[in-house]
Please model this.
Amino acid sequence: MSRTTDEKEVEHFKNWISVWWPEDRPNGLQLMNNVRIPFIKDAIASIERLGNKESIEGINILDVGCGGGILTEALAQLGAKVVGIDLSVEILNEAKRHLESKSVELKQNITYKVESIESHQERNSEKYDVVVSSEVIEHIDSDSIEHFIQSCVDVVRPGGSVIFTTVNKTFRAWWNLVVGAEYWSKRIPKGTHHYGKFVPPSVLIGYLERSGCTVVSSRGFAFDFNVTRCDFTADLDYFYAVFAVKRE
Model:
């Protein structure tokens, strides 16, 4: 296990593999792609070193903590070359199972690896155009987050993009995500989120700046009451995304 690994978190997520790709309705992570994909595309379009491309075709992306591959597949469908890494063999097997029924072209755009970001960074320093870690850092112990972020930054080429999405440390986030989603509607298994691990935007931005990045933009997003949509919001009070560029 890596320095930033919480073994209890890894074990917890193993127990709900079937949640990743439900057949009856999109889950929250799938709905999040409605905001995550546009945010990532806009970030890539602003990378001068890549020629300010509007398309992400051919862009090399690392998806850190990819889980069942929900964001990985969506990025690869747009033509990006995506490496997804995760610490759980079982969850990555679910990602691979879901990919089996997809096109040859999509399969060629995705590589899954059971690996920590620290191990991956040792062999892939400054390799990627973009690194994305979505809904991951709120599952890492607070004293390890800065090290995790630094490892993510280290795999990006100078001038490349670093993108995180996570949960703000607010009453609204706790009420909706823990009380509402885990205990009331039971859309998420109990014990998935812990308020003490939620990360305020100022803390995440500070870590990125100290890791050699310049923060460019941030946006908030949230679900509707029935969790049938996910849209951008006017504030960062619940979920939020941060885009930074690694300084050259």
